[in-house]
Amino acid sequence: MAIDSNLHVDAAVGRDARSGWLARHRGIGIALLAILSVLIASAWLVFPYFLEGRTILSDVGVTVQADRRAKSVSIAQHLTRFADGPGEAEVDIVYATPTYFDVADKGRMVAEYRPDLFHVFVVNETTHAVDLPAELPDVKLIVDGREYAPVDTEGPIDTDHHRATTVRFDRLNANGEPIISDSAQRIELRLSSDWDSERTVRSAVWALPITYPEELVSPGIWSPIIVLALSAGLLSAVLTPCLLQLIVVYFATLTGLGAEELSRTGVAAAATSRQVFLIALAFVAGFMILYTGAGAVIGYAGKSAQLLFADSSRSVGIVSGILMIGLGIWVGARARAPVVCKLAMPGMAQRFDKGGLVRSALLAAGFSLGCMACFGGAIIATLLVYVGALGSATIGAAVMFVFSLGVAVPFLAAALLLSRMTPMLSQISRYTPQLGFASMVVIISFGVVLLTDNFHTLSNIIYPWLGLS
Fold first, then answer.
1. What is the pLDDT of residues 325-346, one digit of tens each?
2. Which of the listed residues 217, 251, 272 is the one where a domain comes to its end?
């Protein structure tokens, strides 16, 4: 019993000594805590420094693209019809349906040919002994006996023995109705040219509805190893600019919402520490849900997702910026920050988000979505190549979930450290309005960056400095 008593006495003396040191060196302790927290939250940066992300993506891409190439050949054969007729020319036509663009890895052509708005056909002409006619074929689309003229025809005129001509027809007629309805049973493409002296009409027919073999539209090659490799490669090579600046928004959110908790009279330090960790958890959940959802959309929609992001990226950036500015003002007002401390917040919002969890999640999701929109070209194109190519919402979500988990763990470790330092949190409670104001300024600044589409400017400054450009 005497030994146990001595151990308890020694432990108490140790705690008193630590508390005494903290009391004498508050400023140094808080500064060291802040530096250590930032370092822990930035631990995922080992990926770009120690992993060749682009090499990983390239290696995985070889496997994925080999599978795509095999499917590309198969679906082209499945949708090809031959238009036989007199003359030396051999003519075949590919009906380039939206599924064709998705499976055949024709992502670069989606924005140009818009298979969501037009029926697209590719007419291939080949001769061996004579030159092709010096004109593009005349093409008509026949749907259940009704004839339609093309919207446009595109192909080379001056060519010798091979020509590929792209022909597009409107999906909707003048009344806004589909020209190929669900009840249509067949479509026919009629073509004529100087393949013979009589300009004999040739035709190609597709029975409707078009069905695809399961092996063509099923998810591509994948395994847990590929999921992990893709996640590591994306983390170290593609999305680092967003994540680097996400750290700043993360700590601004923790500081601002933590200051709000500290500003409440009568709130115990232990309860405040717990709330700080919950705020961090909500923030992490916000960006993890956003990125996992994006992976699912891209995995499911494939090339159609490219159209979605291309059409809406600027609007998304503006909405995300406005959301962050509004939430930044709210954070400052709730922490009694100067300038905005007297702003009246909507009563329903006050009751709905007393602990700041909703704001924290919305700030993370809004920033991450705005980042993806502002970097839309590079990020979405890469995700489409490596995530969209797998052709599965489940796989796409899994890749992006594991990716975001790699960032979430250091973020939560940093928050856990902060939440355990109860004496430190108590010491800074007198500065809560100033902390709330600083957090508000940081959050609003990033909102303005997203609103003005200048996200890349910050990354161009930061990346060379870190040796990652």
1. 888 888 777 766 665 555 555 5
2. 217
